[in-house]
Amino acid sequence: MHKVLIVTGSDSDLPVIQEACSILEEFGVDYSVRVLSAHRAPDYVAELAKCARENGFGVIIAAAGLAAHLPGVVAAHTTLPVIGLPIKSGALAGQDALYSIVQMPPGVPVGCVGINAARNAGLLAVQILSVSDSSLAEAFCEFKRAMQDGVLRKDARVQKTGVKGYLEASK
Questions:
Q1: Are residues 64 and 100 in the same domain?
Q2: 66 and 21 share one domain
Q3: How far apart are CA 135 and CA 118, in angstroms?
Q4: Cβ of 22: how many Cβ atoms within 10 Å?
């Protein structure tokens, strides 16, 4: 059984995090969500990251806004893959968090998805876990096939009705 650990710096991030939870549930991947600040509870964050592998986790999603130190602090204390999820907040609307996460120093890698892109964080966690789980890999392939089929259906409608007809039918 694979598990994903989701750590966020604030309870105000939970509505965004819910999208990652929904994806993990869709693929049948167990997960745990923790609200721990890299600045306000650094010892707890370090201990959580250090013990994540022995507690059965295979991937960690770390979400944070503003200075967004949480993903880097988590990555500093584990050898598991860490996916940074920048949260839209503050005067820079998440751009500061994005830059903080993608600018990790050499030797402390953190993967990063877009601002508030919790759905992609969940999907990336599933992809990482699918490397060692053929049933999860097949489920992910089916997910991608379903996306492709949806796009092809839309393309066929546009080809049949034209842009104007497509948009009118979509109202």
A1: yes
A2: yes
A3: 23
A4: 12
Question: Is the C-alpha dihedral spanning 84, 69, 96, 66 positive or negative?
Answer: positive
CB 154 within 8 A of CB 52: no
CB contact at 8 A, 147 and 50: no
Query: What is the pLDDT confidence band of residue 1, given thresholds at 50, 70 and 90?
Result: low
- In this structure, are residues 120 and 114 in contact, taking their beta carbons and an 8 Å threshold? yes
**What CATH number is associated with residue 93?**
3.40.50.1970
pLDDT at position 2 is 73
pLDDT digits (tens, 9 = 90+) for 116-165: 999 999 999 999 999 999 999 999 999 999 999 999 999 999 999 999 99
Domain span at 161 = 136-171
From the number of C-beta atoms within 10 Å of its C-beta (0-12, 13-18, 19+), residue 167 rates as: exposed
| CA dist., res. 162 & res. 160, Å (int) | 6
The burial class, CB within 10 Å (0-12 / 13-18 / 19+), for 89 is buried
Indicate whether 15 and 45 sit together in one domain.
yes
